[in-house]
Amino acid sequence: MVQILVNILYFFVFISGLNNSNSDKIVEPTNRDLKYDLRKSLPSNYVKDGSVDYTSYIQQAISLNDQIVFPGFPILINDNGLRIGSNKKIYFEKGSEIRLKPSSKKIYNILHLRNVKNVELINPVIKGDRNSHIGKVGEWGMGIGIYSSDNIKIVNPRISNCWGDGIYLGKSNGGTNNNIQISNAYCINNRRDAISIITVSGLLLESPYAGHSNGIAPMAGINVEPNDPTDLVQNIKIINPKTEYNKGAGISIGLSKLYGKADKKVTIEIINHVDLKSNIGLKSSCYPKRKSGNEEVRGSINISNPVWIKNSKVPLQTALFQKDLKISIFKPTIVDMNNKSLPKEAMRKMLTSKGNINSHANYYVSYKEDK
Q1: Is CATH 3.40.50.10490 the right assignment for the domain spanning 2-366?
Q2: Which of 27, 262, 277, 330 makes the best surface tag, with the fewest CB within 10 Å?
């Protein structure tokens, strides 16, 4: 019976990567008369095949209107991207798509939110230029870039083929992001990461799909990756994430760069993570060699009910050396390369063997068989 259930789970996860339900969810706008139809700002002879650059027309419409509806056909923009100001609510009709014109830039943000508040993006579909990018340098071409912004809500984003990350949460002029909600994201075939979290205080990431990241390291599905000691990694909650076939980790948490100034507290909760065939299911590190004095990185990483399936390297890898930074894993399921669900003793042996949980880590593992 257990093996049958494992096989059913494996089939479900595999199919989800090919036809993930997140990609089909559409939130229809209501009270359409209150929303500005973007077609009004396009030239009279506009095309509907995404072959003509309309960046300047669209940017003007976004700047002048607070509620906007993108039409149900593809629109081409250039690497200036679209700047989204504060107090905006933007809907994308079924069939809408923002396509990036081939770029030679190392850095771009297709949708760019910087130092803004109170923004909602509903159903955005974004296709980057990784298959047509001009040149080979850079890794920072983002689908949606959010920098030092507050009260941002993104629903049903579908982002693919970016030169860097699908979604990126970074900073501008030293500030962090606050109160970010992203639901039902579908990020696939992006070159660096599907979703990168650099700095945030208050993030709800609900039911994301983050798969097939490949091209340039770290190539993770979801990557928590502070860049320096001023960044924050606080109150992050990731619920029901599905990751698969990432060349790096399904979920990666690298905290070493938080060292260098004051003490830091980290709070991360991950619930019901399912990974299929990423190189590593979940990876976490915090190296004290970056310390400048007596500062400490403290806090908790709690992982509940993870399912790690056929990871080519290891299901879980840690390099944690901070006694007050605890990683807790509750009721894991590990499926080996032979498609067999490991019993408790085999999981315990695997997780505590070399290359998995390091011996210096402050860790706790409970198993389904435990009472």
Answers
A1: no
A2: 262
